[in-house]
UniProtKB/TrEMBL annotation:
SUPFAM superfamilies: alpha/beta-Hydrolases. This is Alpha/beta hydrolase. The keyword Acetylation does not apply. InterPro entries: AB_hydrolase_3, AB_hydrolase_fold, GDXG_lipolytic_enzyme. Gene3D superfamilies: alpha/beta hydrolase. It comes from Streptomyces fragilis. One of its GO terms (molecular function) is hydrolase activity. The lineage of its organism: Bacteria, Bacillati, Actinomycetota, Actinomycetes, Kitasatosporales. Residues 63-268 form the Alpha/beta hydrolase fold-3 domain. Keywords: Hydrolase. It holds the Pfam family Abhydrolase_3. It comes from the Bacteria. The keyword Zinc does not apply.
Length: 307
């Protein structure tokens, strides 16, 4: 949602209870269910929404879907249609995670919840009808930060094995020192002022060096991470940190596809035209499908169109 004031004001105005599954818009061809899985030690359980294309008996690839919102806004309701559409387009089990938000629960609470969700997905392929060899993470904006952080944690902890990471206009660097972050101080949707507040709320009272799991751009070594698709918007203050991260992935030997869409604000809002936004959405869905299934299945059919 566009933020016109401060993030703290938006939190006070827009936080609300999640809708029950039955009240969500139905997406033909996709089943949706909820499950609450064990959270991190001493923390509450983590709510997941599981999206699965109907009429598929075989084990499907799976993707943990992490919503954005500046670490303090957004929820699984906000990504309902996107997660359902991704399940259809990629013929995959898409698992959207409801993680704790700042400022009430600063780092590492949200990342810990996402890690608990990832471990549960990796450990329950039979229940999900998922192929354990094709597990990915995906996220947009701050969700992209959390998704990228998960890849670093998985490498550090020796699993779960990830086949792909899909990062859309990701937040990656708390230092806010890139050219685009310096230039775009008052752009719509996202700007330097909001980025500063977002990192302050997310890191909270954290003292000492900021860990790479919190801000993946700080990682000195990107070798051994899963193949990536990373997209940026040309009028987004986050543009340069995304492009630099993609280049560093490539230099580290990680297969990476990167696309900067020049005429768009953060999250591909205007001035990109509706036609351009649709083209971007179709590319994102196709990239997810290819990343999850680099060798096309005979029954996969053509990519689904974005709606």
């Amino acid at each position: 949602m566009p933020v016109t004031g401060s993030l703290a004001e938006a939190v006070a105005e827009h936080r609300g209870a999640l809708l029950p599954v039955g009240a969500l818009p139905a997406v033909p061809g996709v089943s949706v269910r909820e499950v609450t899985v064990p959270g991190p030690p001493g923390a509450p359980g983590v709510l997941l929404r599981v999206y699965r294309p109907e009429g598929t008996g075989a084990a499907l690839p799976s993707v943990l879907w992490v919503h954005g919102g500046g670490f303090c806004l957004g929820n699984v309701d906000s990504v309902h249609l996107g997660a359902a559409q991704a399940a259809l387009a990629a013929r995959a089990v898409v698992v959207a995670v409801s993680y704790r938000l700042a400022p009430e629960d600063p780092f590492p609470a949200g990342l810990d919840d996402c890690w608990a969700a990832l471990e549960w997905v990796a450990g329950h392929p039979g229940e999900l009808g998922a192929d354990p060899a094709r597990l990915a993470v995906a996220g947009a904006s701050s969700g992209g930060c959390l998704a990228a952080g998960l890849t670093l944690l998985a490498r550090e902890r020796g699993g779960p094995a990830l086949c792909f990471q899909h990062l859309s206009t990701p937040v990656l660097d708390d230092r806010l020192a890139t050219g685009s972050m310096t230039a775009f101080t008052d752009t719509p949707i996202w700007n330097r002022r909001l980025a500063e507040e977002s990192w302050s709320l997310y890191l909270g009272a954290w003292s000492g060096p900021v860990p790479e799991h919190a801000a993946p751009a700080r990682a000195a070594d990107l070798t051994g991470l899963p193949p990536a698709y990373l997209s940026t918007a040309g009028l987004d203050p986050l543009r340069d940190e995304g492009l630099e991260y993609a280049l560093r992935l490539a230099r580290a030997g990680v297969p990476v596809e990167v696309h900067n869409f020049p005429g768009a604000h953060h999250a591909f809002g205007g001035p990109a035209t509706p036609q351009e936004q649709r083209r971007i959405a179709v590319e994102h869905l196709d990239a997810l499908r290819r990343g999850l299934d680099p060798v096309p299945r005979p029954d996969a059919g053509p990519p689904a169109a974005a709606v």
